Amino acid sequence: MSSIVLDGGLATHLEALGCDLSDELWSAKLLVEDPAVIRRAHLDYFAAGADVATTASYQASVPGFVRRGLTPREARELIRSSVTLALQARDEAGHGMVAASVGPYGAYLANGAEYTGDYDLDEDGLVDWHRERFEILAGSGADLLACETIPSLAEGRALAALLREAPDVRAWVSFSCRDGEHVNDGTSFEKCAALFDDLPQVVAVGVNCTAPRHVPSLIGRGATLAYPNSGETWDAAGRRWLGLADPVEYGKAAAEWNALGARYIGGCCRTTPEHIRQIRAHLDATTPPASAATPA
């Protein structure tokens, strides 16, 4: 099955490039402090074989930047700049697409709620909170939106409502899952994915920020998009990552996900350009690459 290779963990690579991301804005703080390094990170992923650059807007929001002391106008310009940087990298690389990251409300909260879906907003509140950034990114010149790391049915419904209002805006949608059957709030993956069945502009529905071992089961439940994390686990007491994800093994797993039915494949937290290089190599060895010019 032909495939489109996504990039890997943007924050992971930015840290490898020497950036300190110990901040509630995470990688989005570099939109203020060092935008050039974001562009370099995108270029490194394109050089590794990625067809898609995902922007540094995951944790960027107007309220988040305003909380930092910026004006709403400055915040909106910074969000747009995340797409500009990726477009510049794409043009320099000479190929690829740009996916504008629409991170979950929990990323703004910066308290880990994106891994549980335990929010202080209901569905209508989530629609209102997402609307401004959604509209900024929808008009930014990106090829599509990456609505990602969604932990709950309620947030999925909120994003589906916004996509329904913008039928010309292409997107992919990915949920964060706690096992091979359920998103993080306990709802079945199939029920969440079905929210987008009547939205033809959604090019794929799948999973990210999920352990790789759960991906085959989730593909069996309809996921066509898979960019899990590295599979490492965080030791909070020791403040360190345990285990070492082998990029070669990750690339072999990616070929298996493709054979099972995933079309969009990449990496999330703790994956690197080397993981993407291995995905590219293993997929090219088994399938002809899909055109990344027009996702379908």
UniProtKB/TrEMBL annotation:
Pfam family name, one: S-methyl_trans
Record-annotated Hcy-binding domain positions: 1-283
Keyword annotations of the record: Metal-binding, Methyltransferase, Transferase, Zinc
Cofactors (names): Zn(2+)
Top-rank taxon: Bacteria
Annotated binding of Zn(2+), by residue: C209, C268, C269
InterPro entries according to UniProt: BHMT-like, HCY_dom, HCY_dom_sf, Hcy_S-methyltransferase
Protein name as it appears in the record: Homocysteine S-methyltransferase YbgG
Organism phylogeny: Bacteria, Bacillati, Actinomycetota, Actinomycetes, Streptosporangiales
Gene symbol of the encoding locus: ybgG
